[in-house]
Amino acid sequence: MPFAKELMTLDEISGGRFTLGIGAGTTNHDASALGAPPWSLRERSDRFEEFIALLDTLLTSPTTTFKGRFYSADDARMLPGCTQQPRLPFAVAALGPRGMAIAARYAQTWVTYGDPKLPAGKHFEGVEHLIEKFDGACLAASRDPASIDRLVLTGSSGPDFFDSVGEFVDAVGRYSELGFTDVVVHYPRANAPYAGDPRMIEEIAAALPTLHSSR
């Protein structure tokens, strides 16, 4: 409940411009950041599914009573409600079938970084395959796949960083053709991951107004 209240407050002070980015995490640093033994893949998925279902209920209901396997709420009051209705949007990261089913049910934006098992040369082919699976998950959840925005994170797989504005434009064009509405570029650093020249991101940013006006 405290997290849901914080989200409601952020939604209000941002004037209804807040989007929650959320995912189940990974088995590396995400799993051990708090110093506790990492959960199994199944438990992490179980917890995430229950957590996001409860969060959705809290943010759309004046009061909530819920008793789950991992989380609970007892007459939790969430007034006055979100500025955005019926609640602030969720951007849900999902790679596997179960995560995609959750995203298809609750997300306003699906987040992916491609298939990490594939080499860089197969990145776009892998992304296309993930899109097919996500579209299937949307249809299974009785949602129009076109009603959900798609955001791709560059750097974890596929393009690590861009060596020129032209390379950036080419990649964004390919993502756009695949139906992505948003492309996120990580700020470059000296070493992998996301190794690159910070001056290049400045060149990309400077070129964006021209790129937008040419569309």
Structural write-up:
This protein has 215 residues and is α/β, with parallel strands linked by helices. The protein has a domain at 1-88. It has seven helices and seven strands; from the N terminus they run H-E-H-H-E-E-E-H-E-H-E-H-E-H. It has helices at 2-13, 29-32, 41-60, 97-106, 123-140, 165-177, 198-213, and strands at residues 20-22, 63-67, 72-77, 90-93, 109-112, 149-153, 182-184. It has a five-stranded parallel beta sheet, with helices on one face. Strands 2-3 form a two-stranded antiparallel ribbon. Strand 2 (63-67) and strand 3 form a beta hairpin. Helix 4 crosses helix 5 (123-140).
Descriptors for this entry?
215 residues, single chain, alpha/beta, two-stranded antiparallel ribbon
